[in-house]
Structures are given as C-alpha cells and as structure tokens.
Amino acid sequence: MTTTVLLLVPTDATPDHLAVDLAQLMLRRGCRVVVIGTDVGVLLDAVRGYGSARAAAVVGDHGDAAARDALMATARSCFGPLDLVIDPMRALLDDTAAHTVALAA
Questions:
Q1: CATH 3.40.50.300 fits domain 4-101
Q2: Phi and psi at residue 92, in whole multiples of 5°?
Q3: Domain-wise residue ranges, the chain
C-alpha cells in the first residue's frame, strides 16, 4: 500500500528548502505527495522529477480559514484519503483521519 502524504509548505520564515527536501525524501521513499502553499516555485521544486501519478502541487494559503476546506478537498481529490499530514506551522486543518506531524518547535 502506498502512503499518501500532504505537506503544508509554510508561508512564514521557515526555510523553503525544508519543504522541498522533505517532499523529495517522501517521494524517494515511494509515497504519493501533495504539497500546498503559496509559492509556486517552491511547490514545483518540491515535486520536481515526479509525475502526476505520484506528486501534486496545490497553490493556496492553507492558513486562510476561508480557503482551508477547499484546499483539503483538492488535496484529497489528487490521491484519495490522506495517511499523513505534515504541518510545519501547526495549523488546525480539519477532522482528517490522517496522522498529523508538527515540525515546528
């Protein structure tokens, strides 16, 4: 079974390379990865080298409560249910059954 990971790319001072490196690591390990964030360049770097069967980039501000539900629905539409949500900003998303990993100290 392939793990589906949602990686929320921070919009704050967290270095962009962290999201790119983490997405690439998950992809190399065979996961399907959806990245959500506002910086198109960072999102494309995060999924570079992997096709649409394994990687997706969704542009949007996951910190915006009004957009959150639509972004989560879009993420799920890419590969189905999420197994892992990696949230460096510790944003409260929804009642997803996925395990959430907060990377921020």
A1: no
A2: -80, 120
A3: 4-101
Note the pTM of the prediction, 2 decimals.
0.81
Mean pLDDT estimate for the chain: 81
Pick out the chain residues at pLDDT < 70. Answer: 11-16, 88-105
Compute the distance between CA of residue 64 and CA of residue 22 in angstroms, rounded to an integer: 23
Alpha-carbon span 52 to 55, nearest angstrom? 5
Rounded CA-CA distance 52/78 in Å is: 9
Distance from C-alpha of 12 to C-alpha of 26, rounded to nearest angstrom: 22
pLDDT at 86: 83
Distance CA 9, CA 14 (A): 9
Instruction: Match 């590969």 to its residue by tokens.
Output: 79
